[in-house]
Amino acid sequence: MNTNKGIEMHRLCTRLFPLNRSLTGEGVRQTFKILSEYMPDLNIHEVPTGTKCFDWEVPEEWGITEAYIEGPDGKKIVDFASNNLHVVGYSIPVDQTLSLEELQTKLHSIEHMPDAIPYVTSYYKDDWGFCISDRQRKSLKPGKYRAFVDSEKKLGHMTYGDLLVPGKSKEEVLISTYICHPSMANNELSGPVVATFLAEWINSFDTQYSYRFVFVPETIGSIYYISENFHHLKDKVIAGFVLTCIGDDRTYSYLPSRKGNTLADRAAKHALKHIFPEFIEYSFLDRGSDERQYCSPGVDLPVASILRSKYHEYDEYHTSLDNLDFVTPSGLLGGLTALKRSIEAIETNKTYRVTHCCEPQLGKRNLYPNLSKAKSYATIEDRMNLLAYSDGTVDLLEIASLLNRPIWELCSEVNVLCDAGLLTEC
Amino acid sequence: MNTNKGIEMHRLCTRLFPLNRSLTGEGVRQTFKILSEYMPDLNIHEVPTGTKCFDWEVPEEWGITEAYIEGPDGKKIVDFASNNLHVVGYSIPVDQTLSLEELQTKLHSIEHMPDAIPYVTSYYKDDWGFCISDRQRKSLKPGKYRAFVDSEKKLGHMTYGDLLVPGKSKEEVLISTYICHPSMANNELSGPVVATFLAEWINSFDTQYSYRFVFVPETIGSIYYISENFHHLKDKVIAGFVLTCIGDDRTYSYLPSRKGNTLADRAAKHALKHIFPEFIEYSFLDRGSDERQYCSPGVDLPVASILRSKYHEYDEYHTSLDNLDFVTPSGLLGGLTALKRSIEAIETNKTYRVTHCCEPQLGKRNLYPNLSKAKSYATIEDRMNLLAYSDGTVDLLEIASLLNRPIWELCSEVNVLCDAGLLTEC
Amino acid sequence: MNTNKGIEMHRLCTRLFPLNRSLTGEGVRQTFKILSEYMPDLNIHEVPTGTKCFDWEVPEEWGITEAYIEGPDGKKIVDFASNNLHVVGYSIPVDQTLSLEELQTKLHSIEHMPDAIPYVTSYYKDDWGFCISDRQRKSLKPGKYRAFVDSEKKLGHMTYGDLLVPGKSKEEVLISTYICHPSMANNELSGPVVATFLAEWINSFDTQYSYRFVFVPETIGSIYYISENFHHLKDKVIAGFVLTCIGDDRTYSYLPSRKGNTLADRAAKHALKHIFPEFIEYSFLDRGSDERQYCSPGVDLPVASILRSKYHEYDEYHTSLDNLDFVTPSGLLGGLTALKRSIEAIETNKTYRVTHCCEPQLGKRNLYPNLSKAKSYATIEDRMNLLAYSDGTVDLLEIASLLNRPIWELCSEVNVLCDAGLLTEC
Q1: Is the CB of residue B375 less than 8 Å away from at least one CB of chain A?
Q2: Does residue B358 sit in the same domain as residue B335?
Q3: Which chains touch C (3+ CB pairs under 8 A)?
Q4: A184, A3 Cβ separation under 8 angstroms
């Protein structure tokens, strides 16, 4: 594995980190501008405020130029310019003087994590607020404070991107990730960044399937995308993955589709089992990202999640501590590798049938050790097992699972047997 | 829960306790007279001796007026008048003088329970005998004894009762219990007493299903009832429970139907899991009451048993120690509650489907917390899960089981979602 | 069990042990001559060299008259006459003088088993070699050695035998074993010897099914047999067992068919569970004998293996230590018993249905204890359970498994109930 890819991905995270992403707005557009450097064919779409999609409609666009709190001495003690988490997402404009007691009702902090700035939004109700570390909050003295937010919510657009990399078949694998969180690294930058490098890899060889990459704001974005592409997705998508929280180094995790046994689930579990056998297997009850939409009743796409430390399951989640130290080059590289292995599993998962009744005579084809001693059989175990199980009813992923062998290691043996005319694809 | 119900049930047990119930006879009729005070609509039926039902026929009616053993000194040492367990059920008349040795062959006692009088019957073979405590038996001195039984077996009737409480649907839930055991409290008085108070509760609200309560002598009674109502029961009964041993305080138990996965089984297991997670789950191999008939091949009704301490599984079973101390108000109340919860599960177990693709927007309906912080999602978990799983293919009981939540707590959330037009019954 | 049978089987092993069996040749013919004494109806077949069967063809016949190594002092230090394992199977003729260094390349021994002569063959590539104990090999001094093999591979025949014992039905149980290994006792003599005594037993009573016994050289023999009898076997065989490694005393083992749930699998597991509950259950991945052919895709016969210590799983396997001490009379008798029990399971595995709705009245047929006391029910548990579960949809093997009772102990109770008209075969 090319460890440089880990470093390159971390660098891209670093570039994207300071941008003030939200459901909509300039931060999202700046993010796509950078991503387009890596994916020149990425299509950027703008959807007008108020566009209906199922039960929802696209919200107003939010813009913010400046926001701070001035202390009793007139100095800025909290400033959006220094960390965009300081302002509650979608805050309305305000310029108000408040007592400390009044100010407290508009502050958010985390008592048990005194140095973390929490991430808070109020997308669908007009409100404003500031997020600060609990340590700072506790140091505030009584007095008069000025809260200032220069923002606007206006008719505008929701921005999203997608990219189709065509393969031999029109059947598609869907990769969905989101670009609506400000300065946090695992949730969310690891998602779009790993997706970007996965697209690069997919582009580097001839794939069996087509690959659809979708970069949307979470929830409203995937709902819009499904509503716009409903029949196409239902017809074409054979497997899909939501990419989020895929850049830290602590563990690997899997969250199933609602059905739990789709091709995406099988491929993800297979890959993770052979990469990191201790991976955490969550329930669909633990869901929390766009699989909520892709797997909703009536939509029911075969979409699973491959993660490292799952959202809600690490302390730094949705705080300023989910930063560029928490996400590492090797963490990102591990995430990318898990996706690549899962996709290899999907690409190579065909069904084969033997061409002869009974075992073929491998010896005359130089495919069998000539001298029979105890245990000489073991050296060609994969070969013999592939011949014993390929009856045209079980696919390679199922055989690999029976043999407890990674499918990517069985493939060369499958090719040997196909070349020798002993196996044939169904 | 109304603890007074426990006390009321225990009082009814106390009234019924002294009556000399058997397969047939006056004790049964007196029992029904008292039960009718609680269930004025209870239908009492009399079936003539000799009536055929499947492989069986209704036996002769048994009556007994007096029975005792006189000791060598002419004093009564064992007297039916003081405890009706003293006489083997269906004993034929006798007036005989015997040596102690001869008498011993007609005595029954339990060596390892020196103070218990055992319960013994001889329904289908002419015989007589006395049951005494082992302590008394060991104290008997050699000498002449007089055994006297004034009884008769004659052409008469077998008495049983049933009650139908109609619901919106003609589909029925069957509650079957028995009234053929003399002075014992858990097996059997707890059964008919809990059934009586369950009928009162069913009568107190509008039910979806109709409820059929059946009070029969065990085995011959249920066989007769099935033979008389075979097609009706097969057509209408969607779930049923045998009620026995449901009044002590030691544990809760479940015994499956033969198929093991009927609605009755699902409801019983669901209720017990949330009432008393350590409940004992028996096998159908452990059966021993009227489920033997209801679940027999060709009959195959969906009938399970909910019990507290199961017959055969407590030392006091079928002895004079199965008394009004062993059965308690809280034991009876717990049994009644388990039945009520199981019935609530059946009543509310419908199948729902969401009305929108993707998650609906709960915020605009004031069904979602507006300020998004880490974990704010948790407070509406039931709501989100009901929307995620209601795809029209799984019923509410299955969803409750997936969520590990009692169905009776999910119901209010289901109503909220139906009222909001987000869920619809299939 | 007749322990004399164990001694008789061990004696037959002792007679067959010295013969130089191989895929083909005189050793095989001598073996069949002796087996025919026990099975006069055994058909011996000769298949010409070069006969095609699926992907294979019958090899040349191998004959050997003399083979030895002379040491530097001119004395024979290794001699085929003293142990036929000394020569690599199918060795071509040689008469050559070699340095010790050159000789080493033609020697086979096992370093961690210094006293064992290994068993080595080279069926399909022209080669020669000698097998000796590692202790002897290490004692060899530098000098000139003479290697002499007087053998020939020529157009000839492959010899095999089969025997059909007809039953009431034309459906067949297949027993397959092999006769191609020289002086080793568990693998392989236990196989043909237990098969021989099993045939004797099958001949001793009227069976439901017909029994086909097949004695072939491993792999090429079973492939030939399947190719010759393909449609017959596919049509008629309802269950089959490969017999090998079935004569030692250490354990019992089971190796499934590829499907894993055939009648053969069910019968084998049932028998072993009640004979030796700690039996080892292997996976089809551990296969290594003729089930490789019988269970190959497209052939898919219901063939499982019942073994004692499985090939590859005991140190003595494929060495001179797999001898007449390792295989014992009680080991062989245990193996025979496991087969007999499995066959009894197959013979008696019918599906029954009760003739009455509800439990029949056993009392009037003297099939029930008349006096009802606590636990009197237990004494007729099998009877009641057979009546409760025989609904015409589950076979006796499944009921036996539900009851955790050996099917051979349930049979008498089944007969009682059939005779009483309470059960009927479907």
Answers
A1: yes
A2: no
A3: A, B
A4: no
Number of domains in chain A: 3
Q: Identify whether residues B54 and B198 lie together within a single domain.
A: yes
Q: Are residues A335 and A362 in the same domain?
A: no
Q: Are B284 and B223 in contact (CB under 8 A)?
A: no
Q: From chain C, pick out residues whose CB is under 8 angstroms from the CB of A360.
A: 54-55
| Residue B127 forms contact with C (CB below 8 Å) | yes
Task: Dump pLDDT digits (tens) for B158-196.
Answer: 999 999 999 999 999 999 999 999 999 999 999 999 999
What sign does the dihedral A130-A133-A136-A142 (CA atoms) show?
A: positive
| pTM score, whole prediction | 0.93
- Look at C296 and A375 and tell me if their CB atoms are within 8 Å: no
What are the pLDDT digits (tens) for C246-304? 999 999 999 999 999 999 999 999 999 999 999 999 999 999 999 999 999 999 999 99
Q: What is the pLDDT of residue B67?
A: 97
Residue B376 has pLDDT above 90, yes or no: no
A371/C106 Cα distance (integer angstroms): 12
In the three-class reduction of DSSP (H, G, I as helix; E, B as strand; rest coil), residue B79 is classed as strand
In a mutagenesis test of the A interface, which of C106, C122, C296 is the best target, namely the one with the most A β-carbons within 10 Å? Answer: C296
Identify which of A360, A371, A387 has the shortest CB distance to residue C122. Answer: A371
**Mean local confidence (pLDDT), A16-28:** 97
* Interchain CB distance below 8 Å, C357 and B285: no
| Residue B2 predicted with pLDDT over 80 | no
CB contact B371 to A (< 8 Å): yes
pLDDT score recorded for residue A369: 74
Q: What is the CATH number of the domain that holds C108?
A: 3.50.30.90
Chain C residues touching B126 at Cβ < 8 A:
none
Q: How far is CA C207 from CA C301, C343, C397, in A?
A: 21, 10, 18
What three-state secondary structure class fits C262?
Answer: coil
Write the residue in B354, B357, B371 that is nearest to A122 by C-beta.
Answer: B371
**pLDDT tens per residue, range C194-229:** 999 999 999 999 999 999 999 999 999 999 999 999
Closest alpha carbon to A262 in A247, A277, A240? A240
Are both A163 and A185 inside the same structural domain? yes
User: What single string gives the DSSP state of each residue in A244-289?
Assistant: -S--BSS--EEE--SSS-SHHHHHHHHHHHHH-TT-EE--GGG--S
Burial of residue B73 (number of CB atoms within 10 Å: 0-12, 13-18, 19+): exposed
Q: pLDDT value at position C124?
A: 82
Residue listed under structure tokens 């009520």:
B340
**Interchain contact C285–B (C-beta under 8 A):** no
Q: Is C56 on the interface with B (CB under 8 A)?
A: no
Full domain range(s) for residue B126 = 62-154
Interface probe, candidates A258, A291, A296, A322, chain B, greatest B C-beta count within 10 A: A296
Choose the closest CB to B226 out of C357, C360, C377. Answer: C357
Decide if C343 contacts C267 (C-beta within 8 A): yes
Question: Which of the two residues, C77 and A378, has the higher pLDDT score?
Answer: C77
Q: Are strands A76-79 and A61-70 parallel, antiparallel or unpaired?
A: antiparallel
Pairing of strands A253-255, A303-307: antiparallel
Neighbours of chain B (3+ CB pairs under 8 A): A, C
Minimal CA–CA distance to C305: which of C218, C216, C242? Answer: C242
Q: Could you tell me if C282 lies within 8 Å of chain A, comparing CB atoms?
A: no
Model confidence over B141-157: pLDDT tens digits? Answer: 999 999 999 999 999 99
Indicate which CATH number applies to the domain containing C301. Answer: 3.40.630.10
Domain C-terminal end among B95, B120, B154: B154
C128 touches chain A (CB under 8 A): no
Instruction: Give me the numbers of helices (H) and strands (E) for chain A, helices first please.
Output: 12, 19
Output the six-digit token pair for C150: 């007087």
Dihedral-angle region of residue A151 (phi above 0 means left; psi in -120 to 50 means alpha; beta otherwise): beta
